[in-house]
Amino acid sequence: MTTMSRPPAEPSALRHTRRQRLNSWLLLGLQDSKGSHQGPGGRTMAHERKHAWWQVMCLTGVDYFSTLGYQPAIAALAAGVISPLATLVLVAVTLFGALPVYRRVAGESSHGEGSIAMLERLLPRWGGKLFVLVLLGFAATDFMITMTLSAADATAHLIQNPYAPMWLHGQEVTVTLVLLALLAAVFLRGFKEAIGIAVVLVAVYLGLNVVVVATAAVESLAHPAAVGDWWQALGTSHGNPVLAVAIALLVFPKLALGLSGFETGVAVMPQVRGRDSDTEEHPAGRVEGTRRMLTTAALIMSAFLIASSFTTVILIPAAEFQPGGQANGRALAFLAHQYLGNGFGTVYDVSTIAILWFAGASAMAGLLNLVPRYLPRYGMAPEWAKAVRPLVLVFGVIAFLVTILFEADVDAQGGAYATGVLVLMTSAAVAVALSARRRRQRKRTAGFGLIALVFIYTTVANIIERPEGIRIAAFFIAGIIVISLLSRIGRSFELHATHVRLDRTALEFVAEDESGPIGIIAHEPRRLTAEAYRQKLTSAIEVSHLPVHYQALFLEVIVDDSSDFETELQVHGVVRHGYRVLEVHGPVVPNTIASVLLHIRDVTGLMPHIYFRWTEGNPVVNLLRFLFLGEGEIAPVTREVLREAEPDVTKRPWVHVG
User: Fold this and answer.
1) 433, exposed or middle or buried, with CB in 10 Å at 0-12, 13-18, 19+?
2) Rounded distance, CA 569 to CA 31, Å?
3) Crossing angle of helices 224-238/284-315, nearest 10°?
4) Model confidence at 37, in pLDDT bands (50, 70, 90)?
5) What are the CB-based long-range contacts (under 8 Å, 24+) for 83-86?
6) CA–CA separation, 223 vs 225, rounded Å?
7) CB atoms closer than 10 angstroms to residue 643
8) Please, are residues 520 and 582 in contact by the beta-carbon 8 Å criterion?
9) Which pTM value belongs to this model?
């Protein structure tokens, strides 16, 4: 007899290979096509806990409020002594432009789809899909640069802290990559509800900023000479106040970073707790809470921007804002160390580093919310794009490349960030203007149209001033379009139907013959005359050697929008000229036919046989027609779709061609 430390394993229970375990880990929690996922931007189910609007404001605030870490320094570097006036313009655009636009977006995309979904509804078919892909490219620019820029600025705060070890200096890229890797690790482990962490981070960060800004304001008032020097410099460099205001309007596009956060705010609105009377179709309480959240965040941020812009430009020498200066990318941190001591300044640095790092988490969640919502539904991403972990790895690698490309420089990434933010805000303004026009709201159409013009001007001016932003955005756009189209081609032979339903008449048609097989003739829906049906039946009988009085079913696929991918098929039974017809609307003829045949097999337990004619014309042209128009080479493609969907040839519906 032998002794064992554990009982013998069941022989049939084979151990998974290392590759199988890796695949299982990567694809854990595979998403559905709506893009719900384990992240703050994900769509919550009815039974999941929702949160008060002010708590969700903190979640989106880790992105929005964290810009205080670098916005005042960027404003001073871009606008110099007129940065307070340019900041006032920024605040005006925020409160009277971006805020009204996104309050309306919240009302029309209550599930967090944002302005992209509004424009998708206005622009159907391939044109709409390509337009959405372009906007997704800009959204990727926005969110990706949010991650890399925030991590780079967190690195700047860490390295420039007086207590930081000397060996960190010159290691900006390495430290930034470490922060990005830690961010990716959080999502790879499984990013759960983060609102509690966000509330603590935002509360501490804003509280410390109140202390810093108040101290700086007191110091400014205690040194009227510094205020006088600023006013004299303003008058000397720009002649008169009117000219200064005009220049502030021209310089404003450089400050567009202060507009970030609105798109993220709309994306996380499914987390907002509404009223008990809310329904998924009419969540009035959720919309009201989101609008309150957006308004409060905009007011808080506007107050901080105005106060910080005046105090930093008055108290900090201009040379310190330049690259290599102590205030470059960290103006408020400079003031915290200067006037409150290195101890408080270090606490402020730690808070800033934490919220800047967590701003990257908000951006990552935004990407995980957008990509599964659109690309898999378009058939323009592989199945694994519905899972969190593979996407996190992809986004992490891209963030590494961007960081290395820009050498973790906050100023160098500002143009790309502003471009992504401004294009998304411009698209939102255009979307709400078109929505108001469609509803014949003339005053609102004019108002939103004017806001759209302001954002268009700002976007164009930013692109002209800082073309590196459009270059990096063009890289993202080209990458998304190319990869999406290749993925669409690669998935062309998959079943597209999410569900197939037969109405009562259709069920009666397929259930009439209990012995089988079920004969079905593919027919073009453009030829609906009695003679067309008679000729098609006669041809099938002659070519396929069917019985002379064979009573076959006809199957007609009406192509609605060939750009769609995942669809629900409704099969209707109709009688035309005495012939029984199964009619179904779908995006692609071969894939729709294959889905219907497999469903009939499963419902009846009988094997369907379908009869085609060979398609006339050049096979290459027919293949392109299939890929982009949903028609073309029908018979062989239907057979290939069935082959991939059903590997067992004995269970595969038969395809006959003559």
Assistant:
1) buried
2) 22
3) 90
4) very low
5) 83/255, 83/309, 83/312, 83/313, 84/306, 84/309, 84/310, 84/313, 85/244, 85/245, 85/248, 86/248, 86/251, 86/252, 86/254, 86/255, 86/309
6) 5
7) 14
8) yes
9) 0.73
Q: How confident is the model at residue 8 (pLDDT cuts 50, 70, 90)?
A: very low
227 has pLDDT over 50? yes
Could you tell me the two tokens for 377? 């539904």
**pLDDT digits over 239-254, tens only?**
565 666 666 666 666 6
3-state helix, strand, coil in the chain (%, to 5): 70, 5, 25
- Here the tokens at position 242 are 């009117």
How far apart CA 324 and CA 474 sit, in angstroms, is: 30
Q: Rounded distance, CA 29 to CA 37, Å?
A: 8
Q: Average pLDDT, stretch 463-483?
A: 82
Strands 553-559 and 497-502: unpaired
By residue count, the chain amounts to 658
The helix (H) or strand (E) run that includes residue 574 is strand 567-576
Q: Specify the DSSP class assigned to residue 515.
A: S
Q: CA dist 266 to 350, 404, 427, Å?
A: 28, 31, 14
For 95-131, write each residue's pLDDT tens digit: 998 899 999 998 887 777 777 777 777 776 777 777 8
Please report where in the chains the tokens 């805020």 appear, as a residue: 99
CB 113 within 8 A of CB 270: no
**Strand order through the sheet with 579-586:** 497-502, 567-576, 579-586, 553-559, 518-522, 608-612, 654-657
